[in-house]
Amino acid sequence: MEFSSKLLENAVNEISQLPGIGKRTALRLALHLLKQPKEQTAHLVQALSHMREDLKFCKSCHNISDVELCEICSNPLRTDDIVCVVEDIRDVMAIENTASHKGLYHVLGGKINPMEGIGPHDLNIVSLVEKVKRGHIKELIFALSSTMEGDTTNFYIFKQLKGLEIKTSTIAGGISVGDELEYADEITLGRSIINRIPFEGSLKQ
Ligand SMILES: [Zn+2]
């Protein structure tokens, strides 16, 4: 791609670093911004920069938050002894949309994936086990996607909880193998949270 402006070329190069955005789309977006009032670009830059600088992760559940303890963890109306274990923030959003889970969350930040070099210590597992050890939580709901990595992660956590008094369940029903949780439709997802099954019962013999 030949540019008559180095400034435009730099902008296009930066925009095209984003996932799913090729050079052509980046050019279209850059030209779009050039047609808009200058303030619009300033607002975009400001919003992105504020998000990057000031956004926090909840100190309890690792969900994204503007304050130390996220809105879900600090809501007194939530059931604080049932914790739903999810891979990432998008899963929290998907489950919140179903309105079927009144408890709290624990965001792992990924799944165990040896192929990509992601081990248990790269995830928020220690803080989850510590949380369970404090003895207040009655039930953990594993809501990871039914992929091999999701199953491996569930099982790893399950083993870490050995000897601790905690009920573990999984939302196996309704989410087919290989389906990512974030893509499950709300009704199916909501139903599978309500009809969750004991985790041990879900293990293949
Ligand atoms: Zn939280």
UniProtKB/TrEMBL annotation:
Annotated source species: Lacinutrix neustonica
Functional note: May play a role in DNA repair. It seems to be involved in an RecBC-independent recombinational process of DNA repair. It may act with RecF and RecO.
UniProt keyword NADP present: no
Record lineage: Bacteria, Pseudomonadati, Bacteroidota, Flavobacteriia, Flavobacteriales
Pfam families found in the cross-reference section: RecR_C, RecR_HhH, RecR_ZnF, Toprim_4
ZnF start-end (C4-type): 58-73
Gene Ontology terms, MF aspect: DNA binding; zinc ion binding
Coiled coil start-end: none
Domain Toprim: 81-176
Name the UniProt record assigns to this protein: Recombination protein RecR
